[in-house]
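Task card 7
Instruction: Convert sequence to structure tokens.
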Amino acid sequence: MSYREELLSEGWRTFQNELDAMERDNYDVSVYKTQIEVKVGKERGGNKQETMAEIRAIPNVTVVSTVPGSVRDDETHSYIVYSLAFVHQQNRFRTAKLHFAHIVREIKKLPSVLAVSIRGDMMKKKI
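Output:
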């Protein structure tokens, strides 16, 4: 590599590093976390793990986990409290609350889900 090519290459690397640093400083990912209780119908298909996987498949949902000790069962239903995190898309939903309302509507459409209730407040998560 010639001296000129080395200078150009070094300049390009410096520019990329500065650009990466600017993007890291200006890039704000809005991740919110909350808990929901889901009533799952055992006869309607899907078990707890399948329901969790279906919730994870909803766009922008990043984390779904069962809150330890929260699962209750009776003969026909399971009641599960899930911890849920999602990335708020500001270009599609004005507020995180509207985005979360959309996610809850999507959860209610799942075949095994009979009801959804919100547990606790929605909090912005630091990443």
